[in-house]
Structure formats: C-alpha cells, structure tokens
Amino acid sequence: MENPIETESEEQEQEQSNSQDSSTSSQDRHKWITEQDNLREKLITADSFTWKLPTISQIGAEDLRFVGGVDISFSKDDPSIACGTLVVLDFRTLQVVFQDFSFVTLSVPYVAGFLAFREAPVLLDILEKMKRSDNPFYPQLLMVDGNGILHPRGKCSTLYWNTLHKQSCTIFFSITICFGLACHIGVMANLPTVGIGKSLHHVDGLHHSRVRKLLEAKENSSKDFIPLVGCSGQTWGVAMRSTQGSIKPIYISTGHRISLQTATAIVQMTCKYRIPEPIRQADIRSRDYIRKFEMNARLKQID
C-alpha cells in the first residue's frame, strides 16, 4: 500500500529552489570543495554507536530508542523562504515524541553537488538547540531527506566498456567516497545518519534505467533490496522496495557512523509506507508549516 500523503519528489523541491539565481563564484565553489574534503576525512562508514537494534523477543535498556528525521520545504511564493523540521520518533512505536521547526531565508542558492551548504545549517541549528536543552528525546540516529555517500560531485572521469554488464560506464579516475547532505550533517553533529533519496543521482555508472531493469528482472522480483554497485565495484547504497508491489524504490546510503547493512535494516523497520516514518513525518510537518506561513502572508496582504 502506498502512502496516501506522498512526499514531494526531490525534483519538485529542486525545481523550486532553482527558481532563484543559482550562480556562485569560483571562490565559493573552491571554499565548499575544500570544506567538503576536510569533513570527508572524518567520515565513518561502519557501525560506531553504543546502542543495539532491539529484537522481537527481547527489549533491552541499551536498545535504539529514539530515531530522528529532518526535512526542508520551500515556499512556492518565495523559494528563498524555507522551513526546516526535525521530528523524533520512538523506535518501538513509531510515534512522534518531539518536533521542532525553523523558518529561514536562504541566501545560498542550490548548486548541484553542494546541497549541504544550502540546507545543513538550518537543520544543524535545530539539532543543536535540542541538544543544548538536554532534551531526553535527542535522537540516537538521524534519517536525512537527502543522500549520504550515494552522491555525485564533479571529478575527472573516463568512459570504458564494461564487458560483464555489456554497457558503457563512466568512472572516476580515482574513486573516492562521495559526501552528501546526510554525511555532512552526520559529521558536523557527530550523529549516526542515514541518507534517504527519493530519486537516483547518476553515480559511477548507476542511473535510473539500469536500476529499473534490475528491479524488474525476474530473479529480483521477490527481493526487497537491490545493491547499488557501480562500475568501479563500489557499493554506494541500496534501492529498496518499501512496500509490497511498489515500483518506486527509495535509495538508502550510509551517512555517518553506520554501515549500509544496519542502515537498511533500520529503514525497513520504520517503513509504514514508501518513505520511512521519520522522514515522512518531518516532510508532512514542514509542508504544513509552509502552507500556514503562506496563508498568513496572504491574509496580511488582504488586510
């Protein structure tokens, strides 16, 4: 069963954010590349946490209890106005135990490959505010509406013919772990994070048509997960069918301090619909806050 209240696609949100001037100076881009590379050195792509995944037969005090989700929605009237939202769910019940939001006017434009420099600051501020208040529901793990290591950034590349898969593939001369929004937030907040993509970026020979063929292949028809293995042999994430019969997968990737195997298990345990519940609840609330903001703005204009 698909979610009756489907979340906005990344393409729609990107289209809204692109309506403002997306030009940036070479100096800005160089600064972002340097910062991204410095943060990448701190990235951990293996399990690095003290909690445990609960089992059906036994629930312990050390089990994962609070899972957060973050999302940003943009005003249709003014795409520079955004609402960042954080929700925290009880992992056992998937009920929301905490929520907070923040309206901001963004001055940084959307630039492909550097989304974190536009969206991460507002989300990190909400997390920091919660942490400073010693809130008992501070998340032990955070799901991010955006990619982790399944993330492109301009590199020198070469085209070669992959005889195994009978297709041409573009690979980086030097394969390095990419660094998306979920990685950026995870490293900055020192939190285990999981990237949840609603659409697929072209990374290391992976693209929509190739992944769709994998999902539709007879041998994969009963599988919930399809590993996203690039032409380089690197596994960047998984395409996951969240619900039975779904033809629209979500794309899971490691953000920080968690392995892909653990991330995938947790996402599967939090899916009622296509989108995992922490992200779905954050998305519903952020869009609702934006709608109310726009409605109030229109009423003031009438007055």
Shape: globular
CATH architecture call: 2-Layer Sandwich
Largest sheet features = 8 strands, mixed
Number of spatially distinct domains:
1
Termini separation comes to 44 Å
Give the helix proportion (percent range). Answer: 25-40%
Quaternary status: single chain
For the largest sheet, list the strands in their spatial order: 3-2-1-4-7-10-9-8
Q: Any idea of the CATH topology? A: archaeoglobus fulgidus dsm 4304 fold
Description:
The chain is of the alpha+beta class. It has helices at 10-17, 26-40, 116-132, 181-189, 208-216, 260-269, 277-302, and strands spanning 66-74, 81-90, 96-105, 141-145, 157-162, 167-172, 193-197, 225-229, 235-240, 250-256. It has an 8-stranded mixed beta sheet, sandwiched between helices. The protein starts with 9 loop residues before the first helix and ends with a helix. Residues 1-22 and 154-164 have low confidence and may be disordered.
